[in-house]
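Email to the structure team, subject: Phosphatidylglycerol lysyltransferase model.

Hi all, the expression group asked for a predicted structure before they design truncation constructs. Nothing fancy, just the tokens so they can compare against earlier work. One-line instruction: predict Phosphatidylglycerol lysyltransferase, return tokens.
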Amino acid sequence: MNRKNRIVLVLMLLIGVGIFAFSMRNVNLEDMLHDIVTIKLGWLLLALLCIVLYLLIEAIIVKVFVGNRVEGFTFRNAVRIPLVEQLGNGITPFASGGQPFQLVAMMQAGVEPGYASAVLLMKFIVYQFVIVLNFFMALIYGSHFMADKVHIMKYLMVFGFAIHFAVIIGLILVMYWYGLTKRLVALALNFVKWFGFGGKEKRLERHARLTEWADERLLSFHEESLRMSRDWPLMLKGLGLTFVQLMFYYSIPFFILLALGYDHINYFLITALHVLIVMVISLFPIPGGSGGAEVSFSALFSSFIASSSDLVLAMLLWRFLTYYFGMFAGMIAFNTKADKVKTKHNWSLRRKKDLE
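Reply from the structure team: attached below.
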């Protein structure tokens, strides 16, 4: 990580400490200590297992999409990808750093950038599609609860649904509309020509070199994106694995509540509410949705949790497992050397006129 990312990471940790300190203002410390001592470790370990399985299944998804077209791409490399993604998501607004961090991790392993971009884009589209599908089902199942308890969040969730749906449409356009993508890349590279460092000749030379490099990777990206999108067994496998992956993630609050002794709860309602919380978090520009995540959790789960100390402890455990655990694991993964792939890619690119 560079210096700026390290500063953001420290800042997010400080914000997290501040939020929980603020949440503790009306909590009796003796009650909190009692809740910690009497927690049911078996259920808590299941919650921990859920986040571990969530990350491991994503590694399997990466391995599935990479397939056998990159010799020597080990499962260890695949495990690195979701962990680095968690770090990137956690320190950037709107979780926008997850994709670039994953791309860097794959390039560190020696995967060609165009192919790596296609794999990550396809994985992301599948992930977004399953999120939107889960949200649609959760909204139907939990709408009566929201109507009675939290009116304003209902509109935030619908807005979040619209944003995620628009992202899917935009990504599909990028994948299939080669001419549009090329124009957007060319527009971005024009800044190098007009505003780069050095004299005019150096800027033009740098622009020509970057344009050639970008065109080559862009062709590779579209070639592989189209190939994967037409491979229905691959797509169905990705959809199935992503659905299972997200169900483990969405189940975390249910096991946390069981760990705190709340046995008479509805699994499907708790899971549906967590789906809705995840959608709301994505709307907050602060890295990790800090502030919005904690408020959303408190608003939706206060009806199930009797005491303020239990609510704060549940929020602390949930936030650690769904946010900080991934960031800390991502820091280790980011600083772990990747296994280099053994061979270069040997696919042939389509001619430009076939894609334009």
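The chain has 15 helices and no strands. Confidence is low (pLDDT under 50) at residues 346-356. Ping us if the truncation boundaries need rechecking.
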